[in-house]
Design brief:
DNA polymerase, domain 1, TIM Barrel, two-stranded antiparallel ribbon, 12 helices, transferase
């Protein structure tokens, strides 16, 4: 069996064992919640009532759970619905259609989530780890290192909270119901495999067990952890797999995505095609356009040859530079030529909508700025 790579901890996390977050109903399936409620001396159906409030009505305040006896309300909420995310900063741009939240977890760790409203859908981008151990040099999160994995409930709670924001009507011009979730926030989702898969199942289970999203509207990203990609293909899920490729050749990808030193481009793509074959789902190939680094015409041609005829779509990402970084976005004419060459090769290609630039929209920027502010820098 191939083991996953050992990833570095951030300086703040090195030398200490992360404290576990409090247990939450989103950590458990409905049967597990019923068992816990019974341990508290309450009827098992109270678990369904609590779950309906949390997943169905997006309610957290015990005082609003009026179908529960007043004597039980606080105790049940404390046991099954502890506060996992404390808002630190919430920012909006794009006329309120993009809203970014920075959360502090129970141990002081910081994570980010983004809500994006469109005329036909509402999408949230959520984090699966505090920090990231993949060390991609152009990514603010990767430069911070890994603090710890998030629990299933810490992952799910980001989506539920922002679903409540959407339901409040705060995102003008968009539907009031969350419909899409992308695991493209802080962290490498497949490095927190079991909790991410549990979170997907919770998000997609019908209410009151879960949030009731379509699996086809959930995207799980990876930099290319091949054993985990192959494992995901066997889960019986129909989520979209997004592969953060960023270079079609091993020489450059070894630098941009260090895990490529373990699993090369050919092996990563082979695992992606296995996922597509077994699930029937088109793989989204993510490619950050970095000026004079990976945007040459010959690299577009090579990428086109690798993907031609495959069940794949290229999502080109205009790089959102981090402060002080040597990495910058490709000029628009270069980007257009890259797109032209890929499409000429028969590869479906789009350029990602650039959302949230004025609110530190790139993953990890808001957390980095908060940490720097706290340190007095």
């Amino acid at each position: 069996m191939t083991s996953l790579p050992v990833v570095p901890l951030s300086p703040a996390a090195a030398g200490r064992r992360p404290a576990l977050p409090p247990r939450h109903l989103a950590d458990l399936d409905l049967a597990g919640r019923q068992a816990l409620v019974a341990e508290l001396g309450e009827p098992a159906f109270r678990a369904k009532q609590l779950s309906t409030h949390y997943f169905g009505r997006l309610v957290r305040d015990p005082e609003r759970m009026t179908d529960l006896p007043a004597a039980s309300r606080e105790r049940l909420a404390d046991a099954l619905m502890p506060q996992l995310l404390t808002p630190v900063r919430e920012m909006a741009c794009d006329d309120g259609a993009t809203r970014k939240a920075l959360w502090r977890l129970h141990d002081g760790s910081l994570v980010e989530s983004v809500l994006m409203g469109y005329p036909d859908r509402v999408t949230v981008c959520i984090s699966s780890q505090a920090g990231c151990g993949m060390a991609c040099p152009f990514c603010a999160t990767g430069q911070a290192g890994l603090t710890r994995n998030l629990s299933t409930a810490e992952i799910v709670d980001q989506a539920v909270y922002l679903a409540g924001v959407a339901a409040s009507g705060a995102v003008a011009g968009s539907p009031p119901r969350l419909s899409h979730v992308v695991f493209m926030g802080m962290g490498e989702p497949l490095a927190n495999y079991s909790r991410v898969v549990d979170a997907v199942r919770r998000l997609c289970a019908p209410a009151p067990e879960g949030l009731g999203l379509s699996q086809r509207h959930v995207t799980v990203s990876t930099v290319g952890l091949v054993p985990a990609m192959r494992r995901l293909a066997g889960e019986g899920l129909s989520v979209t797999l997004a592969l953060s490729l960023h270079a079609p050749d091993d020489e450059l990808r070894d630098e941009l995505v260090p895990v490529n030193q373990r699993w090369k481009v050919a092996e990563v793509l082979d695992a992606a095609w296995d996922y597509a074959s077994r699930t029937g789902r088109r793989v989204s190939v993510e490619y950050a356009m970095i000026r004079d680094v990976n945007d040459q015409p010959w690299r577009a041609d090579l990428l086109g040859r690798l993907l031609a005829g495959r069940l794949a779509h290229v999502n080109l990402i205009p790089l959102n530079p981090t402060p002080g970084s040597r990495w910058d976005a490709s000029p628009k004419p270069v980007e257009r030529e890259f797109v032209r060459r890929l499409r000429e090769a028969g590869v479906s290609t789009t350029v990602r909508d650039t959302r949230g630039r004025e609110i530190d929209g790139a993953c990890g920027q808001l957390a980095a700025s908060e940490t720097a502010s706290a340190d007095g820098r």
